[in-house]
Specification:
62% of the residues lie in helices and 0% in strands. By secondary structure, it is an all-alpha fold.
Length: 80
Amino acid sequence: MTIDAKPMSCEEFQSQLAELVGSGANVLNHPHLKECPNDCQRLYQDLQTIADAAKQLFQDQQPEDNLWERIESAIKKGDA
C-alpha cells in the first residue's frame, strides 16, 4: 500500500469542508489548513460561524411524554 503524499488542493479541501464541519471533526487539525497560503482558514471560520448560528435557530425539542405509548398502541392496532 502506498501513501499519496500529494498535498490537497484548495478546491479538494473546499469540496469536503461542509461535510467535515457537519461531522464534528476537528477541522483545525486538518493538514491542508495548517499549510494553506490562501483563504481556506477564513472560509472554514465563516462556515463554522454559520453552523453555530444554525444550531441556535433550532433548539432541542423533546418528544411528548406519551410518545412511546402512542407508538406502541399504533403498532398493536396494526397487528390486529
